[in-house]
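Much of what follows relies on a compact textual record of a protein's fold. Each token is a code from a learned vocabulary of local backbone shapes. The record below shows the convention in full.
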Amino acid sequence: MKLLLRCALGFSLLIFSSVGSPAEQESEGLLNRLLAPGPLIEGHKDLEGSDCLKCHDAGKGISVDKCLSCHKPISIEVSAKTGFHGLATKTCIECHSDHKGRAYDSTFVDQKTFDHNLTGYKLEGKHATLKCSECHKTNRSEMATRKTDIKYLGAQTKCAQCHRKDDVHHFKGKWVKFDCVKCHGLKTWHEGIKFDHGRDAHYELEGKHAEIKCVDCHKNGLYKWPHLKQQECLTCHADFHKKNLSPRFEGGKCQKCHSFETWKIGRFDHKVTGYPLRGKHANIQCIDCHKQAKGKNPLEIKLFKFTGLKSDCLTCHKDYHRFGGYKSKKLGVLNQCLECHNETKFEDIHNFNHSINTRFPIEGKHIGLDCVKCHIPGARKPASLPPLGKYHWADLDKSTCEVCHKSPHKNDPSRQFKQKKCSECHVAESWHVFNRNGKKFDHDKTRFKLTGRHSEISCSACHVVGKKEVFHFEKAEQQFCIDCHKNQHTDQFHPAFSEKSCSECHTTKKFTERLEFDHDQTAFPLKNKHAQVKCEQCHKPTEDVFETKPPHFKSQFLFPNLGKSDCTVCHADYHNGQLGQKCSTCHDDSGWKNVKFDHNKQSKFMITGKHIGVSCEKCHKPENNKFVTYEGKKRPLIHYKPISLECISCHKDPHKGHFGANCQECHMEKGWKLTKDFHKNFTLSGVHFSLQCQECHKDNRKLVGTSNECMLCHQKDDIHEGTLPNCGQCHKQQFWEDVDFKHSLTQFPLLGAHRTLECAACHARGIYQGTPNQCVNCHFADYQSATNPPHTGFPTTCTECHTNQFAW
């Protein structure tokens, strides 16, 4: 056997000594020359003489993971599944072999036959005709060998990588993210343009815009007009009309009149101005209405002014009726000529009925009167202004006859003539005909009934202001109180309540008497304890006083921060701001000490297990040297926020921080000694289940991070000398000798007498992998000593004659 090994070793030395040049053999490590098939390449020569497992997996060949652990740039491509190596389906060793000498190029690329499609970037158009060096311009200067060769890795597929100098756009904003191929083709830079201005830029090029060159608009890298929607055409074009157009046509709304085909207007549709030209207006020239603006300099050319004209007829036509600016409640502005006239012929008028179209029906003596008898033109100031006719009487509804007729009762001491209109007694047929239905004036039929003190006062007390009689009051929605009485509560109530009538609280019988107030109508309904509190306990007197004789202090009725701060408007914050100002979260108005706080819902700390039943002060303890005054007593401030949620903030850590602050990973709140299944990463069974923790976790080392490899504890028990590191593949935790290894699944099933042998009989020195399965490897002595017949010259395939049963 020893002779056979010597022969094999000598044969290996003979073979390896003939590989490589003398220089390579001299620089090659001894171990490499003895065992390796040849010298490593230049880039890997530092690995000679070191551990072969740096690249090789025992019995499994070259590991891809080990290659990528050194070749980081390629590892990035593989992880991202991009580029040539990211899309490759072969292993590294299939393309990049080694042990072929220092000068061997394991990364050689044949530029003529290389399929660029394998990189994920297909060469099309102009790219298909280029040489490799025209795109891959960097070399391997930082590599160990062939520093002047082309470096193929790292090239990007974006056009800007090579064509940045050709970029005439200098895009900004969203277009910076797009590559050139979004618009350009690959055949030539100017052919196959895929850009659609309407689709991609959201601005359709029509008419003349479609004929101009890009650079006519996109100058100096300008590609964004943020105000295009607001300025429209004025974004690029100067405002020819300036301020001579109506606002509805200004600001870039040029398309109202112009088109994209030509700037000149064929025929303007006046209807777009809101004033269609009909009748006689349709036959006149534009300049008959839109006069040319006058300039300061006679030689200065001014534009026609198309703004400033109104649709009112009087803009161009004389006020024949002298209506002026009078407005009728029924007819509106009286100078609306079209109400009576039309645009075809000015003399054609509609029927006008004074009784129907105005507020004043023509009856009795009024019938047949000339219009100017009532609608009399009067002089104006300055005198240069034309006189206006009188067409509106503001007090017509109140006084009627007195508008035109002087009241003979004005100085009459009788009160009834000052209260009634003439029409209550007189009729239009004749001034001397008395209205037989006239009765004593009943104030209760007006909008204001006289009750309480109001029924005792004279009419002049209300209806005479200064020296002027007033019979119409504005504040009907507030029952007219503030028309006569000053509001003493300015800024004292909420604005919504201030708009209500005084009768909400006061009566007409006596002002100091107040009605019972319903506090539920306010933003703060009174319930429980609050319903028992007197008004002045909350609404306390202020420094402001009412303007009365004698003056008395106002009370506070307005709490502007009530919705924000809740109870702290009136009550001191016992918690000193720790829990915010929304006291109603925990307390209610049934009693301050009736606390409704759900620790599981209203806090970040769930109360479960042993924590249930623990008093609050066990965790929330008084702060040192901090006090609050509550119910007239100075008391220590209880600490609620901020408070740590970690167990060690209340409980002593017996592990001294070795396991971190997350105690609940192992312990449960039902009991500190109850632990969860924290040993799940290495299930304890068999003999391990009966061991004490310190038998594995020795020397007070941390429990976390301990390896689950058997060799950590059982290296001394390893009879395989590290050749089979994964003990669990064969052995069990219950019984070490009970091996779960099936030899029948190997290349050498155990049959016959082989089944009774000890493992060490074949696997000497604990070596199991790589054992040959030829008979002669173990039975060479029997092979040589055979004499009947002699086996010299026989083939070493013993099973052609012998069997591996119990008898040879």
In short: The first helix runs from residue 2 to 17. Residues 113 and 690 are 67 Å apart (CA to CA). The mean pLDDT is 80. The radius of gyration is 54 Å.
